[in-house]
Each structure stands twice: as structure tokens, then as C-alpha cells.
Write the C-alpha cells for this entry.
Amino acid sequence: MSAKVKMFTLSTCSHCKATKKFMHDNGIDFDYIDVDLLQGNDKQKILEEVEQYNPNRSFPTIIIGDTIIIGFRESDIREALGI
Amino acid sequence: MTSAELYEMLKKVQESKGYFFNKDKDWVLSILSDLLINKERYGYMSCPCRLAAGNREKDADIICPCLYRPEDVKEYGSCYCNLYVSTKWNEGAIEHQYVPERRPPGKISF
């Protein structure tokens, strides 16, 4: 069974792009939010959510099931996905 | 300005300071395009790997090249974005590990 994948990303961030590509290349379904493209209250609300997972609020913040991975750490991502 | 023009401009200046572009030119040009997007958005080239506040004073430490580049290149051989690296990093003489965020959380004000 595959874990649900949710990512908080920036549209301009190279590591975020690499993470999205990795998910695509491996056929993993994922949801993502490009936080830099949000405005006002929407942005603040999402940033509060990011902070719960990652107090540094850095990107990408990746949630795979119950595992939180900060940054495009490929081996950690593979392990969490079981691939 | 195009990312290719920015590449040529920065290469000369930064190499003379001992900072080299990642040898993966596609990676570099993609980051330079994102720097140009941020220049358009904010009026300055804020680090594309970090969320900007959109205020030059608050973002001063993350305007590329960021304040954290010297320490990151010294410790990891690469800046946070893998844009600027050392020659050893490019040669593969240093392990390419993920560069953690060095910016103190207190500096983040978005």
C-alpha cells in the first residue's frame, strides 16, 4: 500500500523541482502546494501548517504517510515510499 | 536579461572570488531563470530556494549570493541551492550531501 504524499514547495526552488520530478519519474501520486504563489491569508494559513511539520519552514517539506522529510533527501524519500 | 547572459556575467565575477557554478549547466540555468523571476517579482534576486518576504531589508541575507554561501561552501562544498560550489565538489572529491538550511529561523519574517 502506498503512503499518501503531500509536499509544500516553492515554484522557483530547484530542490522542489527535483523532488516533483523524482515523484513523477517513479510514478508516485502526490499533492503539492507552491507556497510562493499564494497570497495574503491563504499563504499565512499554509505557512502555519508548514510550521507544524517543519519549524524552519524551509522547502520542500515532504510528508509521506507519518514521515516528514525536509529537503530532497532521495534515500530518505525512497525509504519512506518503500521503493 | 536572459539566464544565459546572467550566467556569463556572474561566472567571471564569482569565479574570481573562488565560487564556481555547478558543472550541471541545466541546473544552473534553471536557477538563474528563477533568480530572474524573483527579480521581476521583488525587485531583487532573492534566493529561489527560499521563501522571500518581499521586503528588501528582511530578505537582505538571502539576496543571491546569500550571506550563508561562504560557510556552506566551506562546510559542504556547495551553497544551499547547489548553484555555487567549490572545484572539489564539481570534481566529485567531496560527497554531495544535502545542504541543510543555515538561515536562523529568527531571520524568517514572511
